[in-house]
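Entry:
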Amino acid sequence: MSIALKLQPSPLPSTPVQCSPQSLLAATAIRADDRVVVIGPGAFDHLPGLARSGCKRAVALRSASFGRREMGAADVIWFTGVETIGADLHDAIEHLETSRIVVMELAHDGAKAGLAPFLGQLRAKGLADQTVSKAGGRTLMVASRPAWLRCVV
């Protein structure tokens, strides 16, 4: 007796899978004593990777509007799955105090449209070392405060 199975390919997701925690960790060089805030879709999925890397203090939030207090005290902020760079993200950056690194993972290339003004806003906050690259099929923006400026601000 033989059985024939008819296999059908599963549909692909409309957007690529988020960056792996390893990609974000490699981009940010998180230290064990850093306070990390992960914001956006899939934020909670990054917490186990942070714990495995030795990070002792991490918070995951669905939206930046709920985390002003956490963001204000964070050393590292990851924005994941950003669809558009809108007023909510600009407002969140306005409330940053002493963050050392801000990372934004764009969900698709169309989200790059608002990147230039956002980078300018980060630069005005002292996050002047900036790179834009690809990781895990997604655009990854990393802005960090230069070491010499960390002592001043």
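Helices lie at 21-28, 47-52, 68-72, 87-94, 115-124, 147-150.
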